[in-house]
Amino acid sequence: MRGQSERLPVNRLFFVGRNYHAHAVEMGRPVDKTSARPFYFTKTPSTLVASGATVAYPPETSNYQFEMELVLAIGAPGFRVKAEAAHQLIYGYACGLDMTRRDLQLVARDQGRPWDLGKDVEESSVCSEIMPMPGVVLEQGEIELSVNGQVKQKSDLNKLIWNIRELIADLSLFYHLQPGDLIYTGTPEGVGPVVSGDRITGHVEGVGEIALNVGPAA
Ligand code: MN
What we know:
Layout: E1 13-16, H1 21-26, E2 40-43, E3 48-50, E4 54-57, E5 64-66, E6 68-74, E7 90-98, E8 100-101, H2 102-110, H3 116-119, E9 125-127, E10 131-132, E11 142-147, E12 150-156, H4 164-174, E13 182-184, E14 192-193, E15 199-204, E16 208-217
Parallel strand pairs: 1-13, 3-9, 4-16
Antiparallel strand pairs: 1-2, 5-8, 5-14, 6-7, 6-13, 7-9, 7-10, 11-12, 11-15, 15-16
């Protein structure tokens, strides 16, 4: 956590799919909020790695992609939480990378199979230190990612299709949210592949920065 040596005991890792319009379109699956609900997938908590790490290029993919995301850290339990009360569950925020075997994810998606091999990749849930911001609902702020210094993703948190309050309200219909749950809130447009030797850097305005080095193949 920012300015402290304490670590937040992480419970579960939730990920929101298609939560920026321009990214939904680039994935070929536009979102109509009037008829759609948010959807989620999870990753094994052991896939978590700290910002600054060097990770192996994972096996069985030739299209390993970055997704820059705002991460919401839950600090209080909640079930069937009303949007108006959602801020009570917020502990803070971090920068995150939802690294993805895009080739395997899209095959699974198009065949109606689970996304695990595409998404639940070892060392694929990258997280920066958490900025404690209890009760603060982030509604805007630049989110940006670069590879080797070249900007690839640039958007604003005000473009989230389902905002922070709506995500907590909706996800808490399905799960008893617990302290230490991390919610990766979705990625903006511009996702793309990395290769061994690449360095990813990113930031979210008011939250912090993140970095990841892609090492040789595992
Ligand atoms: Mn994602």
